[in-house]
Amino acid sequence: MGQKLKIAGWVSVGVVAGALTTVSLQTVARGAMTPLPLEEIQQLSAVFGLVKTDYVEPVDDKKLITDAISGMVSSLDPHSQYFDKKSFKEFREGTTGRFVGVGIEITQEDGLIKIVSPIEGSPAFRAGLKTNDLITKIDETAVKGLSLSDSVKRMRGEPNTKVTLTIFRKDENRSFPVTIVREEIKTQSVKGKVMEPGYAWIRLSQFQERTVEDFVRKVEDVYKQEPNLKGLVLDLRNDPGGLLDAAVAISAAFLPENVTVVSTNGQLAESKATYKASPEFYMRRNGSDPLRRLPAALKTVPLVVLVNEGSASASEIVAGALQDHKRATIMGSQTFGKGSVQTVRPLGPDTGIKLTTARYYTPSGKSIQAKGIVPDVMIDESEEGNVFAALRMREADLDKHLGSGQGEEQKDEAREKAREEARKRLEEEAKKPAAERKLPEFGTDKDFQLTQALNKLKGRAVLVSKTQTERKEEKKEN
């Protein structure tokens, strides 16, 4: 990172079993202490004493204190978290795109762990785990009651060790155990190819340390195959986000130099920052600018960005910047809405907390938090409609989520009904052979949304969604 970026911390955007994808900056511990509320501290001390003397069996002092800290932080919002020694180390390792685990992106649902997607080629992928599978037990430990970070810890371990996950698969109404051998997972965050003469597709699945370099190489490959590129589709669907400097770099690849990419705002002076499409905002120390190798034509090639409910944080930053600067047409569904900044503050040499300290804003000043990016053109998942999108969670659906600061989202009672209908459709869809299912792999010739994006680039008719609408906001009640 450039010398100007010494302010915030690692900013979490998604959880991978075996890694935490993050937006990363540097931080130092704050020296100033806030005055403590004496009466409440006395109550905390009294409870600590009662547990030590009256609980049915002895409890370790360190466990009581760390659990109290963990509860205090996690009660704030879904993204604030306490890191013990092991989880702090794992958090730092997560940004490299390499980790030891089973290889699944996860979230929490009804106290259980829900699989967002298995990472392609991972042990979980080879074991046949699927999107929307629920993990009910990790080895002999029930997941109900465990925090998301505790569940991640239990699924991680040393290479070549085994972990048994008990899976509940809704569409088959059955539970079954799956034993998986942990291994180092190397995620490939950039894919792409020339779809047809003059038109290419590049997909980013996460924003990691290697993403920018991999993106540059992929663009170079595309232009070698097709020097006269007429249009490009940047696919950010189901991209949970990642490193902030990578998001700024990808935006800068398409934008004029030095325009605003994203800004942040919070209570602290250091939380008020603006990031621009300039090397000093995305280059790592002692590194060269990888974007210098990109063909100049990339700045002006017609561009469509595909997003959906699974596009979060760093991917929303890119989509918002390209949309506000009118550099691209954003197509798909309203994004996840993860627009908050989490700063990691060390509490010692090997522990820390990840605390929400600011919100992200697009160049025009719109808050991303709990709102997301609204596409210029709403496109359904398939020709039959937005078949399963109602099943996807967004930031605004998470318990204790932070508001946008610009009004709260309206509660939509019809959404639960739509989810139930989508679950039934998914059950029927799962019974069909893979070749007949409505949602093929991204990047294939049967990818409906990609086809519509290519039609847009060619000036052809686009099948716009007849049912999708923006999730509106309402004024906060005083």
Automatic annotation (TrEMBL):
Disordered: annotated span: 401-443, 459-478
GO biological process: proteolysis; signal transduction
GO molecular function, one term: endopeptidase activity
GO cellular component: outer membrane-bounded periplasmic space
UniProt-listed Pfam families: CtpB_N-like, PDZ_2, Peptidase_S41
Species annotation: Acidovorax temperans
Protease is among the record's keywords: yes
The keyword Protease is annotated on this UniProt entry: yes
Keywords attached to this entry: Hydrolase, Protease, Serine protease
Family affiliation: Belongs to the peptidase S41A family.
Superkingdom of the source species: Bacteria
PDZ domain span: 88-156
CDD domains in the record: cpPDZ_CPP-like, Peptidase_S41_CPP
Basic and acidic residues compositional bias, start-end: 468-478
Name of the protein in its database record: Peptidase S41
